[in-house]
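User: Can you predict the 3D structure for this chain?
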Amino acid sequence: METAGGNRQSKTLGKVITTVALVLLLAGLAPGLIAPPVAHAAMNSTPNQGTYVTDGKVRTVAIVGGITYIGGDFHNVGPEGGGMTPRNHIAALDSTGALTTWNPNADDVVESIVVSGTTIYVGGWFHNIGTTPTARNHIAALDTSGAVTAWNPNANNYVYTLAVSGTTVYAGGYFANIGGQARNGIAALNMTNGNADATWNPNATGGAEICDILISGTTVYVGGGGFTNIGGQARNGIAALNMTNGNADAAWNPNANAYVITLAISGDGTAVYAGGYFTNIGGQARNRIAALNMTNGNATTWNPNANDVVRDITPSSSDVFIGGDFTTLAGGATTRNRIAALDVSTGAATAWNPNANNNIWEVYLSGTTVYAGGDFTTIGGAARNRFARFDSPTIASVLPTSGAQGQTMNVDIVGTDTAFGAGSTASFGADITVNSTTVTDATHATANITIGAGAAAGTRDVNVTTGGETPD
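Assistant: Here is the predicted structure, written as structure tokens:
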């Protein structure tokens, strides 16, 4: 699971609306008074076709400095439908989505990738990893060349999740020994030498398996399955641990009735989102996804009600992106195949609907771009093997950038990551009539407009809508 992320944001979803400013001048006014373009956009449901894909499941994604790191079950990476290049379980893509030369060549599944500075921490099932294969059991640190560093906590079983806070790397999984200490399912590792913190030992018991670790302030939230006690308290599948001593928060006990496999903090910082297999959590019936009060662990009224497993949750300020095995939300009322965007206030699915044909294991939001990894081979109506990127379209330019009252004119519109098509329509606001919108290709359109004699002067927004919906 991906457990570390930067700023998360998105625009209103469901229609492709691209906007740029056009200055409307009074007749006879000097045409030099032109404002810089301003762009707004809604996210595409169709994936970027240039991003490389894999021949096996993608389980984890991390993006830093324009480099996209992916890990999973794959053995080859390449363009959709094109020649593939060997990459065993871990790879790096550049800002265009193409494969880089970085090749740590793990000998088994990579479950988690977290980047801190110039170090890439990885966890999984592997026993050897690095440009020069080096023994590393289930956890390793790689440099920017793909070589392993001296850091070697040497876990005795699977590492599923990693998180970094300050000079500590938190690891969760199915292990009983790591960093030179007996540690059941979870440990705090020194970033310099890989040793387990001698005093921080929450000691998850009862068949402990930690699936996700989430850091918020001085609290370490953990989700998993099997454990019935952690941090010295009876806790089923989910807990909040003190970062200093590892003790469980005595007041925060959502008490899930089945596995919790993903956690995230809400965009406003008031709730912990939880996803997994459960049907009851926080004292309420909640099917596989819930929002939990950060103070007392009670479930809030937010209830998307998924019919199957939710494997990953990534929130923004306005939307909550989820992926998993589900095919319906809202108790069966809304069809969403394995990936969806939920309204942050109501929990209802937005119109964004990429419709994956198989399970989603990872959803990652970087700026206004959503990445998805999993088992799928089609998504967003396109062939995409196990990895996809959904861009937010923007307007690069409009020409001319000004017009006058009473004028009929053509406006050439150029987009970036747009999907203009036969149904695309342009609008320019009050008292400007759009006579026609002609699409040349996915990124070029021309609108013929007539500016009314009484149209107000000033900057106007130019909207291009694709998908048959009217701009807000």
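Residues 1-41, 468-472 have pLDDT under 50 and may be disordered. The longest strand covers residues 16-25.
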